[in-house]
Design a protein that fits this description.
By secondary structure, the chain is of the alpha/beta class. It has 3 domains: about 5-170 and about 240-310, Rossmann fold, CATH 3.40.50.150; about 175-235, no CATH class; about 325-415, Arc Repressor Mutant, subunit A (Orthogonal Bundle), CATH 1.10.10. It is built from 17 helices and 11 strands. The protein has helices at about 10-15, 40-45, 70-80, 95-110, 125-130, 150-155, 180-190, 195-205, 215, 225-235, 245-255, 275-280, 285-300, 335-340, 365-370, 380-385, 395-410, and strands at about 60, 90-95, 115-120, 135-140, 160-170, 255-260, 305-310, 325-330, 345-350, 355-360, 415. The protein has a 7-stranded mixed sheet, with helices on both faces. A two-stranded antiparallel ribbon has the order 8-11. β2 (about 90-95), α4 (about 95-110) and β3 form a beta-alpha-beta unit. α3 runs parallel beside α4 (about 95-110). The longest helix is centred in the last third of the chain and has 17 residues, at about 395-410. It is globular. The protein starts with 8 loop residues before the first helix and ends in a 6-residue tail after the last strand.
């Protein structure tokens, strides 16, 4: 049972300002998607691209808020398997009834029937008796718990064999300026109701000196969208942020290991360094260590999104373009449109929140991109291109695809899946 509003300031906040601000009427216009928990991502990073979503699939959204992850997963499962029992089950869990009501209204607007809505705490999963889950989403929640480690242990215990998690927590460096301003607002707003503290915060933001680190941080803009976003950013009753090393340690304490940070290239020091001598100093460093260096260099990561799995099972989770049966797909992009945009430049410019990196693409990139539709396998794409150039053998094709894949998967834009085994 959820605690009384007066006993838990975090619950009181989310009852007054459900987060994020959402209008169920907008479901008629668009499906909100993102990371973690996009179904194609879940398959790619946790199931090596081989999960058949026509088979029973259970997902838990722990701390579901106003419903973004639950709605996305439920809709994509329905799209994948069709309506009815085959569309798997998404269990939504949150402490806030106000947030749950918005999420339920959004599901109703879409006609989704594969979400089970519950009010409660993720710390009480064992007592709730919900069984095990193939996938657990915990986005923007752990950093608001009094004991994040206990929360992650609870989530890990709810995983079915072979399952994994998608987690988002705040990043410390990209939130530079947030916590001093939070402290100032606690002093200035002491004793005031939350609604009056919202007005106070907006006045303070408009009156900050030019030297203030919050004002100087160009990556913080959530507070401009709605009062709910402002409360979550600057008036939250409880929040903390993590460095990469701290997040890896938090996972390890729950006997979990990171599988991949998103986007992978954002966590590669080579995205920020051009000096070969500096890069050579990173040779032999574990990939999580390299990710920590990248975070320190970039300075702009205000969140960390990571897919994780029980230690000992994390290796081999990410899909690889190992053979002609692999099917490349985009989570959001349109292949032909991207092919046209690339044109003769054979390059793509990545923008990591102000850090731009030019990615060279292979000669056949436009022709490959134009044929990536989520259905054609690498073998089929190769044969289509070989019909135009008989000298294009598999090895030459694969070398060019691998270059394309490294660039676009590094941006989390190109994923892989494998066809389901017959029967």
């Amino acid at each position: 049972m959820a605690p009384d509003d007066g006993d838990d300031p975090v619950l009181a906040q989310y009852e007054a300002y459900p987060y994020p601000a959402r209008d169920p009427r907008d479901e008629a216009k668009r499906l909100i998607t993102g990371s973690p928990s996009h179904l194609a991502e879940v398959n790619h990073y946790l199931f090596a691209g081989r999960r058949d979503f026509a088979l029973p699939f259970r997902a838990l959204v722990a701390g579901g808020g106003t419903g973004d992850a639950a709605i996305m997963l439920a809709q994509q499962l329905t799209d994948e398997a069709g309506p009815g029992p085959a569309a798997g089950e998404v269990v939504y869990l949150d402490i806030s009834m106000a947030a749950r009501e918005i999420a339920e209204a959004r599901a109703a607007a879409r006609g989704l029937t594969n979400i089970r809505f519950l009010t409660g705490s993720l710390l009480d999963l064992a007592a709730l008796g919900l069984g095990r889950f193939d996938y657990v989403d915990c986005c923007g929640v752990l950093h608001h718990l009094a004991d994040p480690a206990a929360g992650l242990v609870s989530l890990a215990a709810a995983l079915a064999a072979g399952g994994g998690l998608g987690v988002m927590v705040y990043g410390a460096l990209g939130r530079t300026g947030v916590y001093p301003l939070q402290r100032a607002l606690r002093e200035l707003g002491a004793g005031l109701p939350l609604a009056q503290r919202v007005d106070l915060a907006r006045r303070l933001i408009g009156d900050l000196p030019a030297t203030n680190w919050f004002r100087r941080n160009p990556f913080l803009g959530d507070h401009k969208r709605s009062d709910a976003e402002l409360v979550d950013l600057l008036l939250h009753a409880r929040d903390r942020a993590y460095r990469v090393t701290e997040l890896v340690a938090l996972l390890a304490a729950a006997d979990l290991a990171p599988v991949s940070f998103l986007e992978p290239l954002r966590y590669d020091p080579a995205s920020y360094l051009g000096d070969p001598k500096l890069l050579a100093r990173l040779d032999g460093l574990a990939w999580t260590g390299r990710a920590a260096v990248a975070e320190a260099l970039a300075g702009n990561m205000k969140t960390h999104v990571v897919y994780a799995a029980p230690r000992g099972s994390a290796a081999g989770r990410v899909a690889q373009p190992d053979g002609p049966e692999a099917v490349p797909l985009f989570s959001e992009d349109d292949g032909p449109a991207m092919a046209e945009a690339i044109g003769h430049s054979l390059s793509l410019t990545a923008n990591f929140d102000g850090v731009k990196r030019r990615l060279a693409l292979p000669r056949l990139a436009p022709a490959m991109l134009a044929r990536i539709d989520g259905r054609a396998s690498l073998g089929e794409i190769h044969r289509a291109l070989q019909a135009r150039d008989s000298a294009l053998d598999w090895a030459a094709f694969k070398a060019q695809f691998d270059q394309l894949y490294r660039a676009l998967n590094g941006l989390n834009r190109l994923l892989l899946r494998y066809p389901s085994a017959p029967g």
